[in-house]
Amino acid sequence: MTDVNESLAKSFGLNAEEWGKVLEIMGRTPSLTELGIFSVMWSEHCSYKSSRVWLKELPTKAPWVIHGPGENAGVIDIGDGLAAIFKMESHNHPSFIEPYQGAATGVGGILRDVFTMGARPIANLNALRFGDPSLPVTKRVVDGVVRGIGGYGNCVGVPTVGGEVNFHPAYNGNPLVNAMTVGIARKDKIFLSAAAGVGNPVVYVGSKTGRDGIHGATMASTEFDASSEEKRPTVQVGDPFTEKLLIEACLELMQTDAIVAIQDMGAAGLTSSSVEMAGKGGVGIELNLDDVPQRETGMSAYEMMLSESQERMLLVLKPERSEMARAIIEKWDLDYAVIGHITDTGRIVVKHKGVVEADIPLDPLADAAPLYRRPITETPKPAKLGPVESNTPLDQALLKLIASPDLCSRRWIFDQYDSTVGGQTVKRPAQADAAIVRLEGSKRALAVTADCTPRYCLADPELGGAQAVAEAWRNITATGAKPLAVTDNMNFGNPEKPEIMGQFAAAIKGMAAACTALDFPVVSGNVSLYNETEGKSILPTPAIGAVGVLEDAAQAVGYELRPGLTLVMVGETKGELGRSLYLREILGREDGAPPPLDLAAERRNGDFVRARILAGDVAACHDVSDGGLLVAVVEMALAGDCGATLMGAGAAEYWFGEDQGRYVLAVKDAAPLLAAAAAAGIPAQHIGCSSDQKKLTLPDGLAISLPQLRDAHEGFFPRWFA
Amino acid sequence: MKAAILLFPGINRERDMILAVRQSFGRDPVVVWHKETELPAGTDLVILPGGFSFGDYLRCGAMAAQSPIMQSVKAHAERGGYVLGVCNGFQILTEAGLLPGALLRNAGLRFLSMDTMLKVERNDTVFTSKWDKGAQFRAPMAHGDGNYTADEATLDRLEGEGLVALRYSDLNRNGSARSIAGIFSPNLRVLGLIPHPENLVDPLMGGTDGKPLFDSLAAA
Q1: What's the rounded Cα separation, in Å, for the pair A525 and A541?
Q2: Considering chain A, what is the average pLDDT of its residues?
Q3: Which of A67, A91, A168, A352 is flagged as catalytic?
Q4: pLDDT tens string A488-514
Q5: Is B60 labeled as catalytic in the residue annotation?
Q6: DSSP string spanning B139-186?
Q7: CB-nearest partner of B113 from A155, A245, A415
Q8: In contact, B48 and B93? CB cutoff 8 Å
Q9: Residue of B nearest to A718 (CA)
Q10: Of B9, B142, B206, which is closest to A418 when you measure between CB atoms?
């Protein structure tokens, strides 16, 4: 028998104060299983103990929000009686230890969060951050993560339609894998997790339980060190085939009236699902682990309660419908087992082989969960960038920039993801600023994107947080869709360090301001802290996933340039090179202040652009972000395999500045657009035109052929992995 | 033309296929669960869509080829019925012995998801009548195991008897023998192909290049 004491509690991640609370709640020394339950429920990953006080600052309400944070995923009304259900979630720690399985199970986990609410998943996205590409370990991690995302997503048949990738040495020992799923349900058929009905059966559905992933939530709540390799056994193994069966079985069961409550078994597995379902319903729950389908022999109660085996769901059913439910689940060759029932005791009671292994009151477990307002140190505001001297010719700077790891084409990656399965993908990766997926049986479409600029967040976390929200809003706007809501995935370092907690608090402040200004509430999210290796933190990375809606999918525009069009830039250009990619890649500097964000102008410019798109006046539209104006035009030219001729001032600031709130529009006739902009007080200027020659012509007469641009832009990944 | 779409566990492009069939045929196909033993009465065309039947955890298509419904699919083919297998469906047809050869891992050992160009080798079949002979069309691909292979004698026979249906005409990305993307049975009534014409039947999704396959079948 393992002795349960303060020292064991410490090794489970509970500090002395938390251990004291456990003793107080239990009135005795807890059993090993009980200690396990407390430690995972009170882990940072499950309890949000460091972040909760700050997350409350985010705006979460709007008339179209059906369920905000607190459910498995956020739910918004998208018209036609339909709801979009979505969330982004991190799987960072497992993805460093075992990249393929870490990423694969990240996709599996977020899918379950969405279909558990009754939604058919229609789109997957991912936001990935990797270390220095010159390191062999980075190549291994990139390869494994990309294969893992593809291996899982392709098999379950949900199109992977978008995402983003950054590289920075700060992620060397701690890559970020943030996976997002968007699903669709009828808005009157949303399934929640609150258990009800004393005596109702608690039913286990899906894969069998093994010893994989035990204490994964605790692992996700600590820093990495050299011994992290030893944690490999805590990484779960994904089975996308079973997930596909689980999706179809659950959606089929949801067509009936059998389900009272349903929740996936994610982090902390059976523990968190049963505790949360009973807790939310204000009831009790009794489990008999003898009946849990098991993959391995001799599993203890502790192991079963803490296993993070994948592809499992917990359901509370109406007793009179349980045999019908069994028939549906077993049709899909999945395990179906009644493993307990709902009680009125307000306690979770876990029995195994005739012994009560755990008996914990639920309210104190939830209410006494630790909540910390940790000390913060504000990040000093960076000094503005002074004048910049650069002798690099425009064409050389451009070719170098578009070939750099952070700006080069992601084609090599998305060519490994099935983006068309489902038959509804209107705009695939690298065709538009947001992916467009039509809703089956409707004219409507969703626009989905994932965005964050961590180098801005490091310099100024408040501005960076706001910028991430604004860029997501802009990307949706640039397709013509109306931005509706966001999910956030807050990836930060060790919250016990005041400067890290300061980054977190500032990022939230910036996000809240942008969400408010843009009517863009946060409806779901996930926090991943302790992203540090050997005491060094990642860049603060508040990744934003966003969803918008188009009433008619045919109105969506992409950024593929076509011949015979005029190029107009909307938004003001001052030439902000602070923290820009030009500064870093061409001049080798990472300083200055990030480009300022004027949220009122952001909204004004975006609303103007969207209105022009919906009026049918715009053939192509691209937001101006990383790399600035010239890079945006090159991306349009390459996407459409169409040349362009540019005019205008020749300084680097103009071409490569990363001023916010800007778009490049390709239109048949610039005059009405410019007149409308002038009337609305929106800065807009004629910057050039498309061309039927396959080259980019710059103002000083320099020209670069499209094949040369394409070779530079698309060469990095294939050469890296050749 | 009355169509039945087979549903094996792990298949994931059945909805795409239903949309394409509905659009050209003017009516919905019947979806048939793999544990059934009989095809619906009056079935003219059996479609095996793409996906990962049984997770492709054994050889691709090997498990599905043993499903109960496949006995009646074989009988249907022997009677001269039409059969279309796309991607995993093609793999299942080779595993079931309804088409020769096998689909190996892609030559580059990576999943391939992009559009490819295909050349129509003959247009005097029920599957290809709406194309011109030699026509080229675009089709999305999404597969990990599309590398068609067979022994030289079989390949020569396929070529000699005009049973090569489609060839990759821009790049042979998956390494298929003789750039073969799709093949017919000797009676030209069974077609297996790796790319997904069903994903390009709507201008909104980027084009209608794949629609002639379904229009051809609808006209048969």
Answers
A1: 13
A2: 95
A3: A91
A4: 999 999 999 999 999 999 999 999 999
A5: no
A6: EEEEES--EEE--HHHHHHHHHTT-EEEEESS--TT--GGGEEEEE-T
A7: A415
A8: yes
A9: B108
A10: B142
